[in-house]
Amino acid sequence: MSRGISTFEPERLKQALAARRLSQVQLASMVGVSPSTVSKWRAGQQTPTAEVLERLANVINVGAEWFTRPAFSRGSTPLFRSNASAHVAARSMLEARLDWAREMSEKLEEFVDYPRLNLPERDFRNPEEITDQDIEEAATECRDLWRLGRAPIPDLALAVEGAGVILVREETGVPQIEGLSAWNAVGDRPFILLSADKDNGFRSRFDLAHELGHLILHKHIPKATERERHKLMESQAHRFAGAFLLPQESFLGEIKTPVTLDSLLLSKQRWGVSVAAIIMRLVALDIVSDQEKIYLFKRRSARWGAKSEPYDNSRKPELPRVLRRTIEMLVNEGIITLESIPGHIGLSKSDIEMLAGLPVGYLEGGASVFELATLRRPGTEKKITGGKSPTSPAKVLEFSNRSKC
């Protein structure tokens, strides 16, 4: 009788089921085993044979060896904007995708130095202790640390990645969940995954600032399970996003009263923030009353509809750069080859391309490789084997740590 693979990791199977949004019954049918067998694999009571493991890997679209790697240390649990029970599978899928991004980042970090982490530090242990003033001060400190001044931010994604945050943006198939963020257990580095399902640059910027708020304000606060506590943390992240994107002193200096939708459209284009978010910022700053807010939102819905605004298509979402440029630099420097990247990371070519924001077909050699300026310093001689080997020792490539966007 064939013996199972002794190094099979059940946690990898759980992650794969979540990432592909497959049930145990569906996976069993695709692999050609019984649902009870998959259940035993998942519980660690049984392991697949080498032949079955190959079929399992083909179904999941990962390398067979990936199932034998120790499970990745997750770190903090992401906080989702929607706690609806209907989205349980979607949340599990996005958590798994974020785990894959974190693991890919760590594998690449064997060869590169990412930008130094540069975020305001807060030690809040309970959301109830966070005041509106705390949030305003955290947003101001973040701008000061990044030397952004008080003007509109041209490229928020660039500023966030320059501060050491790893950003991923991909189509998730779950437009109801705009993004999620978490701190990594290894190296204490933060990660943000944004949904690319809605091609709205204004919404995307606010979602990014919202997740940045979670990372700063709620780093030491466990995931909320109670509805009211969850709503409070979400409102705090919203307030941070408004304060960060629309700093009080400079933003209010441009607001004319009485506030009209037409004047807010001008502010939208200047600051890169939707009219709806601007209204909420004006409410937070006591410029617009609750009654005036209701009136403005009714007028907005009557003129433009509930889900769209003029000029929504005028600003494309800002794109992540760090993971993409890391891979491009390693390939250009001859430290790794295109053929060896999937084996080193363990994921499929398509998953790596999506998570890193690479062009489709890049790992097949069908996309252009961009020459990028790099900063080099002596480093590890570790390199990935496979394909054409580099003729010189591996180098550690260091990103310039941008303080301005």
Automatic annotation (TrEMBL):
Every HTH cro/C1-type domain range: 13-67
Pfam families xrefs: HTH_3 (PF01381), Peptidase_M78 (PF06114)
SUPFAM superfamilies from the UniProt entry: lambda repressor-like DNA-binding domains
InterPro entries, alphabetized: Cro/C1-type_HTH, IrrE_HExxH, Lambda_DNA-bd_dom_sf, Rad_response_metalloprotease
CDD domains linked to this entry: HTH_XRE
Annotated region (Disordered), positions in chain: 381-405
Domain of life: Bacteria
Family named by the database record: Belongs to the short-chain fatty acyl-CoA assimilation regulator (ScfR) family.
PANTHER family xref list: ANTITOXIN HIGA1, BLL7220 PROTEIN
Full protein name: ImmA/IrrE family metallo-endopeptidase
Species in which this protein is naturally found: Billgrantia aerodenitrificans
